[in-house]
Predict the 3D structure of the following.
Amino acid sequence: MYQQLILIGHLGGNPEMRFTASGVPVTNFRLAVNRRWTGADGQAQEKTTWFQVSSWNRQAEFVNQYLTKGQRVMVVGEVEAARPWTDRNGNLGASIEVTAREVRFMDSRNSGENGKHEGHGEDLMAATEADGAKSSVPF
């Protein structure tokens, strides 16, 4: 069996890196994916779906170092879990957790917040599972 998910969206906050007990870096970030359409009544509609993305090893270090809130990225990965939750008003929602195999910049080279990735090409974020991005995952 095989699954692959491709997401293009904006970071909802700065990435947060931590280390597993065995010292493996993992970086987590929230990704907002917007969908826009025109409804039957002719009104513009928009829906945002949020994803919780985890990247591992070398890729985790790149994500933590070069990505900031608001940047547009493409994530290629797989869904690990969808967890239901309820907001303050009693509305149901889901947190969709994704493990990234690949993360790529989608913004132009010099458009990063505070110039964090200025001068680095989009291929900087091409650390993939083949580079060991998930080889030491403890589960």
